[in-house]
Amino acid sequence: LKVILLNDNVTPMEFVVEILQKIFKHDLETSQKIMLTVHTEGSAIAGVYSYEIAEQKGIEVTLLARNHGFPLNIKVESE
Prior knowledge:
Blueprint: E1 2-6, H1 13-22, H2 28-41, E2 43-48, H3 51-67, E3 73-77
Antiparallel strand pairs: 1-2, 1-3
């Protein structure tokens, strides 16, 4: 399943990069590229995982974003 980050006009770019590094284990350069794709195209794939892992990462992202007061949303969809 693809875990896709969706753009919003509130969540800081730095926070998105941090999530991509912490939760999706991307390096800084890859995280910045994905974040820029989310920013310019409206969404980007953060990673592709099995059902259980995709769901868990979705929950982690949503909780972390809400705890920081950001509306960052993700969607999980099959390839």
